[in-house]
Specification:
By secondary structure, this protein is mostly beta strands. The protein has a 22-stranded antiparallel barrel. 46% of the residues are buried. Pfam families: Plug, TonB_dep_Rec_b-barrel. Belongs to the TonB-dependent receptor family. Hemoglobin/haptoglobin binding protein subfamily. It comes from Methylomonas albis. It is found in: Cell outer membrane.
Length: 653
Amino acid sequence: MALNFNVMGSAVADSAPDIEGFSINELMQMEVSSVSRKSQTVSDTAAAAFVISQEDIRRSGATSIPDALRMAPGLEVAQINSSVWAVTARGFNSRYANKLLVLMDGRSVYTPLFSGVFWDLQDTLMEDIERIEVIRGPGAVMWGANAVNGVINIITKKAKDTQGNLFVAGGGNQERGFAGYRHGGRVGDDGSYRVYAKTFERDSFVNAAGERLHDDWRSVQAGFRIDDRISNDSRYTVQGDVYRKTIGNTVVPQTVLPPFNREFNVDEHADGANLLARWEGNFSDGSEFMLQGYYDRVNFSAAALSDSQDMLDIDFQHRLHPNADHDLMWGASYRFIHSTTENTSAIAFTPNSLGYHNGSVFVQDDITLIDDTLRLTLGTKLEESHFGNTQIQPNARLMWTPNHVHSVWASVSRASRTPARGEAQANVALGGVPTGLPAPFDQVQVIAQPNPNLRAEKVFAAEIGYRTQWTEKLSTDITAFNNQYSDRVLFRRGELVGLTQSLIWSNAQQDFTTRGIEIAGEWHVLDWMRFTGNYSHLKMEIPQDPLNPDIAGLSPRHRGSLRWQMDLPEKIKLDFTLRHVGRLYSTSQAVPAYTTFDARLAYEPYNGVEFAVIAQNLFSPRHPEYKDSSALSLPGTAVEVPRSIYGKLSWRF
């Protein structure tokens, strides 16, 4: 569903609309918050935007956020094992893909330790998600550094839209068991609140030999949200979560020192909590403001590295209307991070404890050139970081809407990814390379060494898009892009000292280019039947590099999906999803192309009660979606993605 964007998790309308009850024309004209952090219609957004609605999530049967992200065009989502995913947009995929900024209600979950997202820590009650907003392409002006290839914002419902009680429970062969409970009520005359708790246990995967792995996943999480008014002109939100995760992991050989000189199984633990407060409203002159702050603490204990991280973030934005042709917005943000690691022979940070900051200011102006027809958006962000120095990230967007049926947009942007702390300060053992000599000279140990003088990676992106509503029942959205990357952070060979070879993080001298096309469509064949589909093609032009040979092969060239939804008599709903992913052809990621099929059958015998049976990964060959190649000396471990069948009960009362 190609909708648009909410700024920091607050909805524009007072209550969530029933998406299923709208025609395509009404959906395209809905008032939603856009990539420019303000209310716009779907057809009026000058960006490659896609929204996964709560109804999409429910009918897909997704039990995790990465599973739900598979519905968006331009996103690469591949499961590595029971709890680990590789997720990115427009190329450069890996377990720690570092060019995709992910937010939950405006709270960044992008980890600065290694870059990327720990997807096994990101969770909430899936029924509380209002929508997941996906921007493909740079979003740096509004969202800051690391929004290089895209932005994902997971937005939960307002408290007043979750009143009463909800109980969900189920289980199956992979989803061994899960349960969740939510209660919502009133606070005073205008306020609302909700509290929730959830837990689940997911079974481990198997390898190509049929052996059960040590990668099972268990979680307990709880949270709350309060929405209320301070006055007629302002309102506030306070929300928070607390969680504990237990994740099985198999540590592969990385060093010659025990215990990392052999493979062993271990249970890793993560505890975390976050608290967010947001105040928004209007000034007396009619301008609008938003002030948000959050505190986020993550503490994880793993065999190779343990870390305690505290993050404090403050963000302010102000929207003005100097005249009828200008819609001006500016803002500033400040983030402080303190991280303390427990070093091992596998990974060691110097220093092991560090406090650092990131600050930015932005300004953007929407300029009306021709009323209701042509609009120009100009903006830039100035960002200063502890790593990567100061970055200027401008963009320009042009939107042409000759009528209510067609819209054409184009943009040029510059965005940056600041180096991760691990690239600037960590020594990481990558494993051993066989020498062919007898022991003890049988392996050369390879060590990744930090580089404190790294420059930020940069991308110059050009995009063009076309949206049209062919009939009242058929619409399409097409985007083409060309990205040119400079100062890519890659390995260069260091010194060979004895049996230790160093690889040093460095900025590449050559530019990389990616280009592609993304297509999304929706067709309401009948009142009770709907097809939605998307296709993405990606071409990467990467200079050959023997130390970094796998970059282009980490992402498939072709991806596509087709969803078929039917509302049958007797309150029965049937959903099918056919998904195809092209092959990965790099040395460590030799994964064949695959086609898989998901199905969901749901029955609602009474209002508020639904029984569903979900089958995932049917009719596909048993093979990995992605391989874990964290150790340099080993090819990617081939973990099969199993077929999953489970049942689910949802009860609203």
